Amino acid sequence: MELAYLEISELAEKLRKKEISSVELTKYFLERVKKYGAENGLNAFLTVTEEEALTQAEEADRILSKDPNASFLTGIPYAAKDLFSTKGIRTTASSKILDQFVPVFNATVIEKLNSERSVLLGKTNLDEFAHGSSTETSAYGPSKNPWDTTRIPGGSSGGSAAAVAAGLVPFALATETGGSIRQPASLCGVSGWKPTYGRVSRYGVSAMTSSNDSPGTIARSVKDLAYTAEILAGHDPKDSTTSVKDIPNYAANLRSDLKGVKIGVPKEYFIPGMQPEVEARIHEAIQKLKELGAEIIEVSLPLTKYGSLVYAIVTPAEISSNLARFDGIRYGHRSEDAKELSDIYDKSRDEGFGDEAKRRIMTGTYALSAGYYDAYYLKAQKVRRLLVNEFNDVFEKVDALVCASVPNVAQKIGTAKDNPLFGYIADQLNIPASMAGLPALSVPCGFAKAEDDSSVLMPVGLQIIGPQWGEQNIFNIGHAYQTITDWHKKYPKGFGE
Amino acid sequence: MILTSEQVRKIAALARIKLTDDEVEKFRKELSVVLDYVSELEKVNTDGVEEISQVTGLENVLREDTARLSEFRDAIIASFPESKDGFLKIKSIL
């Protein structure tokens, strides 16, 4: 029975044809999660929810037996980044400060998947509070890239990307603030969707940079992403930044050619230091888009290089506010050593937060402190407006932009750990779109040699960026590309293929 | 931009994080690297540009201000680090 690398649509069909039950599917993937996803394997999972999963699967089978029109996602197993609040299920954000935290409510997207009767198999590893681009800042150790387990899977949604890449789940929930879906999807050779800001509810997602945070999905194809988008998108009274705009039938609207579509190639995204082989893969992908009928237009976005700088101020600033709630008082870790009230704050935070969280909290505290606010935060938010305007102008001319997701393939675990700028540089091609609230995809577009070992081939991702609410544009381009290429069907060896 | 140890101690105090002397030195170097990195932003001319605070253009999203009972009261109290008689327990303040 070969199910590990099937797309959701293929699994959904098997469920409907009664070739397999959701319980069987769930047991099959749970076995894989336990065999390959645990600490001694890819370290992709922090918690496995076997008992809950089997109960959910039984319920899904009951629905499927009665209702031939059951939802597409009914009975389909998935994993959720451990940043999503799950009722009664430990939720750590990969931080010691939440090591034993069990939420009393579900994130809105978890509720949505529950009502579809999707089956949660467990919670995936991430950089602590999503602060990082390698999963190395996780309090539970780094996840590993299934294509070469000595390398990073990217981050912060590294556990989710590794789990999908190794066929441990058909899809996974993830979140983005500045590259945390696209970058790991690219490094692990899977497809990832970062929604327009406000398209998907943030309720119940541990806050990082509230003005950017966007929950999305990682899956095996753009078509699967489009299906999950229809379910996850929508207004939520519990998140006032969500939009009331209609949700298109993204999947049904997909087309397999790109006639009449204008695609911009921003020259500033081909940066110095980019791996030449990565650049070659991107040009090959652009050639394919041309074959599909798209008109390719070179465009210029001169402010691109400032995106990461804006991010490096706005993100720590918002983090310093958002993480103020972890004070050892109402929930989470409380220091055993605390003798008086102020001790509870200082010691609980010192013991609970890792170095990267502390670095960001302090950077943000400084950037927001009296006398520095104008020079840092206010300045960054002004440049951010210019970035938004620059994207708006270019989307007057083109339907989407394409470029590399990440300038280099995955590096060795350990090489990034002590570089305080690693994330800002690793994600520099993702961050500008994040700062402007734009939707984007990363789709697999081939392989390139590792920079430090020419015998190792690692995945490369094509990034597709759309205008705000332009999910359909990017899904169409990604899907059309996947109808004439098979990079998204490749999978790593060593996981029971 | 090079921070002094005093500045790092002040930031840590504002952020309610207790640092050892070694950590002060470590973060002094690392925060300086970050501040140096972002200083390039000064080069962007933002004269007359208003800062942005909501990228999709929403303003003042309002709802009725009505009291509701929380369905989670008991579960939240159960998750307090310490509690007594249904109240949150903390260390003495004085």
UniProtKB/TrEMBL annotation, chain A:
Gene Ontology molecular functions: ATP binding; glutaminyl-tRNA synthase (glutamine-hydrolyzing) activity; transferase activity
Keywords: ATP-binding, Ligase, Nucleotide-binding, Protein biosynthesis, Transferase
Residues at the active site: 81 (charge relay system), 156 (charge relay system), 180 (acyl-ester intermediate)
Gene Ontology cellular component annotations, sorted alphabetically: glutamyl-tRNA(Gln) amidotransferase complex
Enzyme Commission number(s) of this protein: 6.3.5.7
Ranges for domain Amidase: 24-474
Position of the signal peptide: none
GO biological process: translation
Broad class of enzyme this protein falls into: ligase
Domain of life: Bacteria
SUPFAM superfamilies, A to Z: Amidase signature (AS) enzymes
InterPro entries per UniProt: Amidase, Amidase_CS, Amidase_dom, AS_sf, GatA
Reactions mediated catalytically: L-glutamyl-tRNA(Gln) + L-glutamine + ATP + H2O = L-glutaminyl-tRNA(Gln) + L-glutamate + ADP + phosphate + H(+)
Subunit structure: Heterotrimer of A, B and C subunits.
NCBIfam families: gatA
Biological role stated in the UniProt entry: Allows the formation of correctly charged Gln-tRNA(Gln) through the transamidation of misacylated Glu-tRNA(Gln) in organisms which lack glutaminyl-tRNA synthetase. The reaction takes place in the presence of glutamine and ATP through an activated gamma-phospho-Glu-tRNA(Gln).
HAMAP family on file: GatA
PANTHER family: GLUTAMYL-TRNA(GLN) AMIDOTRANSFERASE SUBUNIT A (PTHR11895:SF151), TRANSAMIDASE (PTHR11895)
Family membership: Belongs to the amidase family. GatA subfamily.
Protein name: Glutamyl-tRNA(Gln) amidotransferase subunit A
High-level lineage: Bacteria, Candidatus Doudnaibacteriota
Automatic annotation (TrEMBL), chain B:
Catalytic function, reaction form: L-aspartyl-tRNA(Asn) + L-glutamine + ATP + H2O = L-asparaginyl-tRNA(Asn) + L-glutamate + ADP + phosphate + 2 H(+); L-glutamyl-tRNA(Gln) + L-glutamine + ATP + H2O = L-glutaminyl-tRNA(Gln) + L-glutamate + ADP + phosphate + H(+)
UniProt xrefs under Gene3D superfamilies: Glu-tRNAGln amidotransferase C subunit, N-terminal domain
Keyword Transferase: yes
InterPro entries cross-referenced by the UniProt entry: Asp/Glu-ADT_sf_sub_c, GatC
Keyword set, alphabetical order: ATP-binding, Ligase, Nucleotide-binding, Protein biosynthesis, Transferase
GO MF annotations, alphabetized: asparaginyl-tRNA synthase (glutamine-hydrolyzing) activity; ATP binding; glutaminyl-tRNA synthase (glutamine-hydrolyzing) activity; transferase activity
One biological process term in Gene Ontology: glutaminyl-tRNAGln biosynthesis via transamidation
Enzyme Commission code(s) on record: 6.3.5.-
Enzyme class: ligase
Purpose: Allows the formation of correctly charged Asn-tRNA(Asn) or Gln-tRNA(Gln) through the transamidation of misacylated Asp-tRNA(Asn) or Glu-tRNA(Gln) in organisms which lack either or both of asparaginyl-tRNA or glutaminyl-tRNA synthetases. The reaction takes place in the presence of glutamine and ATP through an activated phospho-Asp-tRNA(Asn) or phospho-Glu-tRNA(Gln).
Family: Belongs to the GatC family.
Complex formation: Heterotrimer of A, B and C subunits.
Name of the protein in question: Aspartyl/glutamyl-tRNA(Asn/Gln) amidotransferase subunit C
Organism of this sequence: Candidatus Doudnabacteria bacterium Gr01-1014_77
